[in-house]
Amino acid sequence: MFRRFLLLFISIVTLHACSSSEEIVPTITDSFDRNALLVNIADNIIIPAYEDFSSKMGALNTAGETFTTTPNQANLEALRSSWFAAYKVWQHIEMFDIGKAEELQFKFYMNIYPVTVSDIEDNIASGSYDLNSVNNQDAQGFPALDYLLHGLADTDTAILEKFTNAENNDNYKNYITAVLNQMHTLTLSVVSDFKTQKGAFVTSTENTATSSLNKLINDYIFYYEKGLRANKFGIPAGTFSSTPLPDKVEGRYKNDVSKELALEALTAVQNLFEGKHYNAETTGVSFKDYLITLNRTDIATSISNQFNIASTQVQTLENSFATQINTNNTEMTRSYDELQIAVVLLKVDMLQAFNISVDYVDADGD
Amino acid sequence: MRKVLLSIGCVVSLMACTETDPEPQIIETVAPATYSFERSGASSVSFGGQTTRIEMGGEFVSALKSTSETVASLNAKFAHTAGANNFSDADLNASSKSVRSKVAASTDFYASNTTDATAIKADFDSWIEAQVTEVFPMWDMDASAGNAGQIQEAGGGSIRYVSAKGIEYNQLINKGLIGALMVDQILNNYLSPAVLDAASNVADNDAESLNDGKNYTTMEHKWDEAFGYLYGKEADITAPTLNNDSFLNKYLSRVEGDADFAGIAEEIYNAFKLGRAAIVAKDYTTRNVQAEILREKISEIVGIRAVYYLQQGKNNLPTDKGGAFHDLSEGIGFIYSLQFTRMPNSTASYFTKAEVDEFMATLQNGNGFWDLSSETLDEMSATIAAKFNFTLAQAGS
Fold first, then answer.
1. Residue B366 Cα, gap to closest chain A Cα (Å)
2. What residues form DSSP beta bridges with B159?
3. Cβ–Cβ of B16/A18 closer than 8 Å?
4. Is residue B264 a contact partner of residue B256, using CB atoms and an 8 Å limit?
5. Which residues of A touch B (CB under 8 A)?
6. Under DSSP, is residue B350 helix (H, G, I), strand (E, B) or coil?
7. B199-249 tens-digit pLDDT
8. DSSP-assigned beta bridge partners for residue B162
9. To probe the interface with A, which of B7, B13, B249 has the most A CB atoms within 10 Å?
10. Which residue of chain A has the CA closest to B142?
């Protein structure tokens, strides 16, 4: 019976299937103002977050100069706190892999962790390195500073020793300067480019593989799935390996900041979904509004609820995810599971409602 | 709903465009629920030799990345002889089987074409040697155009070890074996009437005359051996989970995971079990129909992955050479494997050896992967996709 039905169906479809090589793309028109959505995201989320990051990055760079000029305990502590302040704001912008950020592979030069310590130490020892090389993407950025400021030795005295009396102390100082210069230069370029291109960004509202809206949404979901869910939780918790890998947490050398960074990132993700202005309580036109306009309040509510559930679960964790993984990894994998539920809501349910295609594939893993 | 309908449309259009739709026929054999066959209360299914070769292949391709290996030690894993201490597993060491003896060794394609068979084996030998003599000495150097060495994927990714042309020989060998060993043995040997019906196999099967000391007829066993090259590492063949080896089983899992091709794993499993049941029922027409389905679908795995990796490589080339070279190294291996595919109801592969050699030459021209352009990769992808019942867009993502 089914076979018969299938045959009938085949003969109907055959005509269509063989007559044209073009894939039929259904055009969905809806009354939602996509331009207003992009304007809100650009003006009230991306640009203020970029400006805040730019300012924190500038302060970090200055603190670096102060420290490398006068490496002492006070300047080390000031540099560490500038590092952390900038690192927290970074969590709000890593997801915007658009424009210059995409072109320069901004995030690959800012936040690849774990770093490869041997690469950093080799670079410092030789004093000759190219931070623009792909080989050095895991030897710079916030994670490299984390290592240099917290992980070089067990005590602050011993760390300071590397920058003062050690044989190649100049190379250590120069490396901090080089890493900060790279981060600062890239940041200025990305931020100014986005401001220049903003007009084009907010009007690119069509539903194509290269429109701003489609790329922004895809980057957003990709970031949530990879940058947040996998990198901050899944990989260190051992979701993708045979055993947990606590050394792969974000901020492993400072050690007690992985939760705070992750919560910051989760807040940023939820704020973008709900159109909440950067560092403010006001909200504007959002992906959530778009779902509601399409009569998919069910999905909109589920996503917000799931972010809240995930956030509540993450808040129960230790400040140090490495400690959490080593003492009770179940709570860590539970957090991952709650985050994963939202991946499906965003990537499948929301994108189907928007009729937007996913533009990335899951890595092969081999 | 619209999306669901569309995807049904896509799946159906694949079938609809097949040039050689078999005539509707009365199928006597009833499809069993699983690949489980018994005689006198015991299983009649047997494919130990295939599992052994998959395991040998697994240890062999892993060893290709160990710089303590020599040409001789790698050749010994590739062309194992009984009793030689080549593997970590004692059972493999004791076995009389070897991988190399079954490379390009099918009855249909190579029994009377030892010229090509010899050339293909020589290709694998040369890649093994090049890995040791060209890549191993440069293991810790940074690769550049014309120079072997290591290259890291962007974003702190994996380190890849490539030839002067950017090729990871271990990937080329691994993916090349999927064609030269698994696909060739399944499609051009064990599913072929020349093997299934050889000698007195039909009469023996009709009479249920079993092999000496075994619980199966020769024909049943031949079919099982085809099955074993795909499912030989499954813990439970009545419920395959896929992704259990580094070869065909893994890449069926990958293709099944692409929404454009979801369902292919079930089609293949169904054809295997119905064909095996047909042998038990002495219904050779049904058996042959299943063999043709398997030829088309298993060939598609190779074609889809070839196009997929060319496209992934193309996408990565501008920003991530390490990632791109890794994709292209897998791609060139699948392209090499195209010569072992088999068009349904035909004696030919989807691409001839000469056509494959041409692809290989294009990819390795000049400084090889370092010199490749998007246009070349798109052109090649389109040429490959055009021979199959899938589009470049479907396979490319």
1. 24
2. B152
3. yes
4. yes
5. 6-7, 9-11, 13-14, 16-18, 21, 23-24, 26, 105, 107-108, 112-116, 134-135, 137-138, 352, 361-362, 364, 366
6. coil
7. 999 999 999 999 999 999 999 999 999 999 999 999 999 999 999 999 999
8. B149
9. B13
10. A135
- Which of A9, A14, A105 minimises the CB distance to B154? A105
* pLDDT band for position B26 (cuts 50, 70, 90): low
Parallel, antiparallel, or unpaired for β B159-162 and B149-152?
antiparallel
Say which of A10, A26, A116 has its CB closest to residue B16.
Answer: A10
Chain A positions touching B330 (Cβ under 8 A) are 364
What pLDDT is attached to residue A13? 38
Number of Cβ within 10 Å of residue B376's Cβ equals 15
What does the alpha-carbon distance between residue B344 and residue B240 come to, in Å, rounded to a whole number? 25
Interface contacts A/B by beta carbons within 8 Å:
68
pLDDT tens-digit series, residues A131-160: 999 999 999 999 999 999 999 999 999 999
Given a contact cutoff of 8 angstroms between Cβ atoms, the answer to whether A90 and A260 are in contact is no
The amino acid at A122? D
Mean pLDDT of B65-93: 96
Task: Please name the residue ranges forming H helices in chain A.
Answer: 2-19, 34-41, 47-69, 73-93, 100-104, 106-110, 117-126, 141-146, 156-164, 169-203, 212-222, 235-237, 258-274, 287-293, 297-315, 321-344, 351-354
For residue B183, give the nearest of B237, B273, B249 by alpha carbon. B249
Instruction: Note whether B156 contacts A135, CB cutoff 8 Å.
Output: no
Cross-chain residue pair B254–A364, CB shorter than 8 Å:
yes
Residue A5 contacts by C-beta under 8 Å, 6 or more apart in sequence? Answer: none
Residue of A108, A134, A348 to mutate, testing the B interface (most B Cβ within 10 Å of its Cβ): A134
| pLDDT averages per 10-residue partition of chain A, 366 residues | 38 38 50 94 98 98 98 98 98 96 96 97 96 95 98 97 94 98 98 97 91 95 96 94 94 97 98 98 97 96 98 98 96 95 95 90 58
| Secondary structure of A177-197 as H, E, C letters | HHHHHHHHHHHHHHHHHHHHH
Residues of B in contact with A138 (CB under 8 A): 152, 155-156
Per residue in B275-328, pLDDT tens? 999 999 999 999 999 999 999 999 999 999 999 999 999 999 999 999 999 999
Q: Could you say which of A6, A134, A364 has the minimum Cβ distance to residue B154?
A: A134
